[in-house]
Design goal:
A twelve-stranded mixed β-sheet has the order 3-4-2-1-5-12-11-6-7-10-8-9, with helices on both faces. It folds into two domains: about 1-160 and about 295-340, Isopropylmalate Dehydrogenase (3-Layer(aba) Sandwich), CATH 3.40.718; about 165-290, 3-Layer(aba) Sandwich (Isopropylmalate Dehydrogenase). The mean pLDDT is about 95. It is globular, with a radius of gyration of 21 Å. The longest helix is centred in the last third of the chain and has 20 residues, at about 320-340. Strand 11 (about 290-295) and strand 12 (about 300-305) form a beta hairpin. It is built from twelve helices and twelve strands. It is about 40% helix and about 15% strand.
Length: about 350
């Protein structure tokens, strides 16, 4: 590896091969710009890589390396990528377009290897192609979602959460993958505080030194002065006032049928939402082909496209890599930001 090569090291996982994951991952790798931005270590099964490249007609070649040993990273113009071959997914055993819990286990296994590589500082970030949450869970990884899994693997203490990023704005969640009935009871000061703190931290990492953060109300019309619910009066607004006094400025709470209009118009950089679909409808509508999901608050950077495995178009070479490209770029930018923010080594 060249001593002057300052590109961040990004681990790339091919996703769930029953869906479009390998297709969008290799379309990302086929772009010359991708290799200008980062040094890339693919982690997965080389047979999946080779079969996907052949199917798509892409002249991509993988050189297998052992991460525990020193290896040469390809230069940006080299026609190859380096890969850790786990040899754990036989293409002959993959049925495209169908949820497979055995594959789900192996997807989790691959992500665990990548997390260990990040914690060992072999890579600076993890970027993974779409996976299937149900397959991972039923395969044996007993977590509600990948974010809880990642938090456990990082031995994380404190608040963390899913961040959704589209070109117009970002969203941060007070509650996420729980039923709507449970979500309402989880709108408490501690979780609002955590989401707002996370929003400030992540937005600064994305380049917004003074982010404009709006907070969505919980109830219709913001509760209509208590007529449709009083959580805005008794919980949300008092919490935001305390946070503002501590230096964590926000705006709102705004009714959810207007807060995204403000964000779309550029008046807000981010929106803290109270429950999953409150923000997902807006982000999917405005940025489906460019949306990125980030696991915020952990020591390891994880990014992925916001869309799923797209079983309806798998194997047809129809999957657009736009969101995969954006997920990769977010990983690169955050890795660069962390590097620039890290203290310089002191001379001995």
């Amino acid at each position: 590896m060249s001593a002057t090569d300052n590109r961040p090291r990004v681990g790339l996982m091919l996703g769930d091969p029953t869906g479009i994951g390998p297709e969008v991952a290799l379309k990302l790798l086929a772009r010359p710009e991708t290799h200008q931005q980062a040094r890339i270590l693919v982690v997965g099964d080389r047979r999946i890589f080779d079969q996907t490249a052949l199917t798509l007609g892409l002249a991509l070649k993988a050189r297998v390396v052992e991460p525990s040993q020193s290896f040469e990273w390809p230069q940006p113009s080299d026609p190859e990528v380096v890969m850790v071959d786990l040899a754990n997914m036989d293409p002959a055993q993959v049925t495209q377009g169908a949820v497979d819990h055995k594959i789900g286990w192996l997807v989790g296994e691959t992500l665990k290897v990548m997390t260990d590589l990040a914690l060992e500082k072999v890579i600076d970030a993890v970027c993974f192609a779409p996976l299937n949450k149900a397959a991972i869970n039923r395969g044996g990884w007993q977590y509600l979602d990948e974010h809880a899994m990642f938090a456990d693997w990082n031995a994380h203490q404190g608040y963390y959460g899913e961040v959704n990023i589209i070109p117009q704005f970002c969203t941060f969640r007070v509650t996420s993958h729980v039923s709507l009935r449970k979500a309402v009871d989880l709108v408490v000061p501690e979780r609002i505080h955590g989401a707002v703190q996370l929003a400030h931290t992540v937005m600064k990492g994305l380049g917004h030194q003074k982010p404009k953060i709006g907070v969505a109300a919980l109830n219709p019309h913001g509760g209509e002065s208590g007529l449709f619910g009083d959580e805005e009066i008794t919980i949300i607004r008092p919490t935001l006032e305390k946070l503002a006094a501590a230096g964590l400025e926000t705006e709102g709470p705004y009714p959810s049928d207007t807060v995204f209009l403000k964000a779309k118009a550029g008046a807000l950089d981010a929106v803290v939402i109270m429950y999953h679909d409150q923000g997902q409808i807006a982000t999917k509508l405005l940025g489906f082909s460019e949306g990125v999901t980030l696991t915020g608050g952990l020591k390891t950077i994880y990014t992925t496209p916001a869309h799923g495995t797209a079983y309806d178009i798998v194997g047809q070479n129809k999957a657009h890599p736009g969101a995969m490209i954006k997920a990769f770029e977010v990983a690169v930018n955050l890795a660069n930001q962390r590097r620039s923010a890290a203290p310089s080594p002191q001379p001995h």
